[in-house]
Queue: 2 jobs
Job 1
Amino acid sequence: MTSHDLTAPTRRVRTRFAPSPTGFLHIGAFRTALFSFLLARRFGGDFILRIEDTDQARLVTNSLADIIGSLLALGIGYDEGPDKASVAALDAEKYGVVDPALLPDHGGDYGPYFQSQRLPRYRELLDQLLEEGKAYYAFETKEDLDRMRKAADIRKEPFRYNGKYRNYPLGEARDRVAGGESAVIRFKMPTDGPIRTVDALRGETVWDARTQDDFVILKGDGFPPYHFSSMVDDHDMAISHILRSEEWISSTPKHVCLFDAFGWEPPIFVHTPNVLGNDRKKLSKRTGAPPVKGTIYKPNGEPVIGLLDQGYLEDAVFNYLSITGWSPGDDTEVMTREEITRRFNLEGISASPALFDRDKLTWLNGVYLRHLSPAALVERALPYLIAAKLLPADPTPSERTYAASVIVLEQERLKTLDEIPGLTDFFFYPLPEYADKSVAKWLKKVGVAEYLTDVAVALGEVENWDAETVETATRGAGEKHGREKGDLTHPVRVAVTGREVGPSLFDAMGAMGSERVLARLAHAVEIARG
Ligand code: GLU
């Protein structure tokens, strides 16, 4: 590794996640937040949530609540960030509402953590750059710039601002602005020579200053753009490592020049690999829509919180996304949060894109589901049965007990919690529904009505109803009819569950209780005879 090896960081590790509230928190952005969080935790440092809301035109109502809610739901708490007062000060029409119960009383010592609440600080630094001749007002209108862009297009050159106002006297520029003329402030980039940037994962890159232009650091609307506000905040908030998406790599020369202009030491840049969907496209909030259940899975744009609704456990999502683009250096995949935190390091982050592999997440989720205590599994599964209307919204204690005995039967097979209704619905119907195919194959055969009748008789005599006594009684009836193996169990399974496959038959019958089982057998006998 380079000098940015983090085995022994030289300053307090302070990382940040700096989303713009311009959409829901999608899986790719969440993964970057997770890495940032893990790095801070690994070194006992601080994880900061900063809201980059200087692009007021792109604000999306309620995205703030989604960002904070998603991070917290997945166990990524911030040490510093939005607090009750700073959120209350926002325009609720534009930002939506965040449940104050989620927010700390005191955001931290480096606040405010909303960029829109830091404008005086930006102004102070903009003035400093103007005074020092490192930045200048520029008076091109949008139309002027469009014309310049078109001309560059015609010449087949990338657009670069021509620096027309670079040497315009500051006093005159200020007078024009005071007179009401609209202007932006641009930063003076070096006009030639190399610009060196270092990325902890990729090493050094040397950029030719002639490919760079004087970028805007204050827009006409009075807000600084990302390049300025984000770097100022990273400095002011004493950020040690900027973990951000690799789309920012090409902006890094701008950022190091800004740090240089202020005489500040830049943080370590870590551009995290993109997370690609199974169509190899980058996960981003601007592409695609959340998937509709039952359609072909397209993760692009999928909100991370949606994974919880689909029945993935928080710990499984945390675990899976931590190994999406990072590896602990061996084949270990199933790790507790504690183990991940202990082992996380920058060296294990890959510089190439990572694939969001839904099947692997699903597999991992199954592992986590099997590790849950039966009581915890029941607690997590009940809402899915209620949502599927298999249980009433407020189940009685006996409905709960019955549902619990059914849910635990599926613990071994279950991969996502939302499979629960589909796997267990027949337990809750008054009578099972029989598919014509199963009726023809298992119920309408010679001798089946008599066999099921005898099973019912034998079961009717069972005293201590449980899986074991039920099995003994059923097998006894089966043997009387000379039935073995599948011939013995299949007709009973179809009669009682309406299905040809499912959880262990006798466990299922044990859970159902004698009344349900006998009613179902009687119903099946009628059909077998009818
Ligand atoms: N506000 C930027 C975004 O939403 C953050 C990039 C960064 O982490 O520096 O993309």
Note: Confidence is low (pLDDT under 50) at residues 285-300.
Job 2
Amino acid sequence: MDKPIGIFDSGLGGLTVLKEVRNVLPFENIVYFGDTKRVPYGSKSKEDIIKYTFEAIDFLISKNVKVIVIACNTATAISLDLAQKKYDIPIIGVIKSGSKSVVSKTKNKVVGVIGTTATINSNSYVENIKELDKSIKVFQKACPLFVPIVEEGFSKTDVAKETAKIYLKDLINKDIDTLVLGCTHYPLLKDSIKYVVGEKINLVDPAKETSITLRDVLIKKNILNKKSKNGICEYFVSDNPEKFSLIAKDLLGIEDIKVFG
Ligand code: DGL
């Protein structure tokens, strides 16, 4: 079926998920929506996050998508269950897949989760990880400054490293062997995070496992695009398409990107 996959994020961070989806499912068409006008979601109320998520889903449905990926951890944590109840279309989030991935990787069963304030306060990662393996100890830390650091293009600077040092100090002292990057922006800070946590701690990006979950859903529902021609991506944002376009080109390594504002 050549109807597109819909991917939604609060802004540009979901491009890290789109990138993985394109690796795993290169022949699929994609419609991406980034709510750049209202980012960040991580510090908003539950009511607002739910409202914005439903609006984004309605928009993607109006674009005739066959499945929706909520790439945003915050929107997944707060709104996924409600969205799955409200809509008939298949909707997947990133937290179940991220949790599956961390459970399969930890050896000492002590793991860390970092995310936005809303994601961490929701306890969603802890619940999903514990559902898979009760014996795993989970330590969490909200890192609200990471998102603006990425948005301002400071990912590879000393500002990022110093901020990571402050945020991650306690987690490192807890002897974690695996750390979930529970926010779409954090994979873009991988180098600075790695610099602080060292080589011994595994970093888990939920995007990889989410793409595999998505492929399984498409196969199960028999809605894979059977054409063996590279899929087309269309990008929609609620504000500032120029900035989004620049970052998207850089992140995806593609010159020809059409962003609709
Ligand atoms: N996309 C959000 C997430 O993954 C991060 C940015 C925000 O706070 O909206 O949690």
Note: The two ends are 27 Å apart (CA to CA).
